[in-house]
Amino acid sequence: MTKVGIIGAGQLGQMLGLAGRRMGLEFVFLDPSEDPPAAIVGPVLKYPFDSEEGLARLAEMTDIITYEFENVPVAAIDRISPSTTVYPPAEALRYAQDRLSEKSLFESLDIPVPAFRAVDSADDLMRAANAIGLPIVLKTRRLGYDGKGQFVVRREEEASAAVAALGGKDLIAEQWVPFEREVSAIGARNVSGEIAHYPLTENQHDNGILSVSRAPADGAHLETIARGYLASLLTRLDYVGVLALELFVTSDGLLANEFAPRVHNSGHWTIEGARTSQFENHLRAILDRPLGDTSMRGHAGMLNLIGEMPADRKELETPPWHLHDYGKAPRPGRKLGHATIVSATADDRDLALRRQTREPGP
Ligand code: AMP
User: Fold this and answer.
1) Which residue range forms the structural domain that includes residue 120?
2) Can you tell me the distance from the alpha carbon of 349 to that of 343, in angstroms, rounded to the nearest whole number?
3) What are the tens digits of pLDDT across the range 250-281?
4) Could you tell me if residue 63 is inside a domain?
5) Which of residues 159, 175, 191 is at a domain's end?
6) Pairing between β-strand 3-7 and β-strand 26-30 as defined by DSSP bridges
7) Distance (Å) from CA 147 to ligand 1 centroid
8) Span 329-351, pLDDT tens digits
9) Which residue CA neighbors atom 19 of ligand 1 most closely?
10) Whose CA is nearest to atom 11 of ligand 1?
11) Which of 174, 257, 266 to mutate to test the pocket of ligand 1 (most atoms within 8 A of CB)?
């Protein structure tokens, strides 16, 4: 039986494992936390992500290794990859971990991006403001996620404080984009180079954290363009696995924000909403199996459950809703679960989502 090792045992690892068990796969995880979500699927080796001993044990116990988050130290992957197959490739991680090289990669592939500049001082930021204009989104180059490690700088007087607050150097200044919508293009590429695309997903964020996804997103022409960007990225990186490319929709077209070299929260709807989930396709891709059908079963909506699970979960446990509880302890801002709905029409889906989020109608 094929054994898959996963670095990280959070909810993404849990959902990879649940999809993989149906495919007859076994799983071993590496994660230092107490009772991580994926422990319900397979044994967890309790080591830090960069532990030489932990990674060596994971490699010994498994046939192939993948990971569920992009902040795995690249050096740790480099250390084990001569003797073990690790997908997605370390090069993808390297780009995804540094916003500056990520944006430069997009540019080299003719994927449009917001104007950006490297910033290592308040003077650099002033120069960037002169070149790009204000407002600017100032971000740390590394280790930012869910809007953490970033500031919107609206006035020149705010420059020094913003640079200081983010550590003074290794920052990136980006043009603040007045986007209409945010979308993600999710696709998979297997070892043989076969590529499969999911329908474009529209994402709504709340305080920098994904709150609602809808698929398919409106706009067939946008989808064609996004697929082209995604395919060139996958090919350039000789990528293997699922990758999510996050894009802003502006009046001038699409601008790439960032990519995640892994299964992605905005693809959770694929469990019920697509014929093959992103989790199954990630495993198919790394095991070099033909990729599964990514077509939709209807109009899908996904609602993240953040901070605390709803006091009355009955409705989300009742079809047509599907509730996924990751089994995590509540904490403000923590992703504890999600719920998916698949409807016959976009209107039915949006109505059901609005009832849950209590948003007013259009
Ligand atoms: P990120 O960590 O880069 O994914 O950013 C988190 C969120 O901040 C994004 O989903 C956007 O809503 C917003 N954001 C990031 N960069 C920009 C930008 N250049 N212009 C406007 N909003 C942005």
Assistant:
1) 115-175
2) 5
3) 999 999 999 999 999 999 999 999 999 999 99
4) yes
5) 175
6) parallel
7) 7
8) 999 999 999 999 999 999 999 99
9) 176
10) 208
11) 257
Give tens-digit pLDDT for 121-147: 999 999 999 999 999 999 999 976 666
Atom of ligand 1 nearest to the CA of 145: 2
Q: How many residues does the chain have?
A: 362
Q: Residue 104: inside a domain, yes or no?
A: no
266 lines ligand 1 (CB under 6 A): no
Pocket residue to mutate for ligand 1, from 137, 152, 171, most atoms within 8 A of Cβ = 137
3-state secondary structure of 322: strand
- Kindly tell me if the per-residue pLDDT of 360 is higher than 80: no
CA distance 45 to 36: 11
Residues 165 and 275 in one domain: no
What is the tally of structural domains in the chain?
A: 3
> CA neighbours within 13 Å on the CB side: how many for 280?
19
Please work out whether the CB of residue 148 comes within 6 Å of at least one atom of ligand 1.
no
First-to-final CA distance of the chain: 51
Q: Indicate whether 185 and 122 sit together in one domain.
A: no
